[in-house]
Amino acid sequence: MAETPSVTITGQCRCGEVRFAFDGPVLLTAACHCRGCQRMTGSAFSLTTATVLSRFTVTKGETVLGGLRGDARHHFCDGCKSWLFTTHEALRDMVNVRTTMLDQLPAEPPFVEMFTDEALPWVKTGAKHSFAQFPAADEFGPLMQEFAATAAG
Ligand SMILES: [Zn+2]
Ligand SMILES: [Zn+2]
């Protein structure tokens, strides 16, 4: 994987009780149009910035688990109920940070969008790669390689 400069990226929930930071590389950016994300965001889709879990820290406050409280661990602020990030045993050393919680929002559209089968018909994200449902497990490796190459310029 291409070496990305170590820049600290920070973010917070709506009320600021929970803040986080990471200095690992951004592995992938994505939009998810699934009904679960529509319900949890109260909007048309969720936005993800995937990074390395071991280089991610909650720097202020604590999160509580929300969502379905199953294998996917959806972390929320207990005060304002913002959905901040998601961890999953199957994701191992990855954490999916909600892009809209970042202090500095990226100008680029998400690299990947998924569950377009469930998308609201008028929604356009500008994502480079679209998947009708969840991409197959073996598609993530090549997607992350292409993303790293694009990010490296
Ligand atoms: Zn909050
Ligand atoms: Zn989703």
Characterization of this structure:
The chain is mainly beta. Helices cover 13% and strands 33% of the residues. β7 and β8 form a beta hairpin. The relative contact order is 0.23. The site of one zinc ion (ZN) has 6 residues, from α1.
* Strand numbers in spatial order across the main sheet: 6-7-8-9-4-3-10-11
State the order of secondary-structure elements, H for helix, E for strand: EEEHEEEEEEEEH
In one word, what is the shape?
globular
Per CATH, which architecture? Beta Complex
Bound small molecules, by name, code or SMILES, are: zinc ion
**Low-confidence spans: pLDDT under 50, at least 5 residues?**
none
Give the tally of structural domains. Answer: 1
User: What class do helices, strands and sheet pairing give?
Assistant: mainly beta
- CATH top level? Mainly Beta
β-strand amount = 25-35%
Summarize model confidence as the mean pLDDT. Answer: 94
Radius of gyration: 15 Å
Total helical segments: 2
Distance between the termini: 13 Å
Characterize this entry briefly.
The protein has 153 residues and is mainly beta.
Give the tags:
153 residues; mainly beta; eight-stranded mixed beta sheet; three-stranded antiparallel beta sheet; 2 helices; 11 strands; binds zinc ion
List the helices and strands and how they pair.
Blueprint: E1 9-12, E2 19-22, E3 28-32, H1 35-41, E4 46-52, E5 56-60, E6 63-66, E7 72-77, E8 83-88, E9 94-98, E10 112-114, E11 129-130, H2 140-152
Parallel strand pairs: 3-10, 10-11
Antiparallel strand pairs: 1-2, 2-5, 3-4, 4-9, 6-7, 7-8, 8-9
Bound molecules: zinc ion (2 copies).
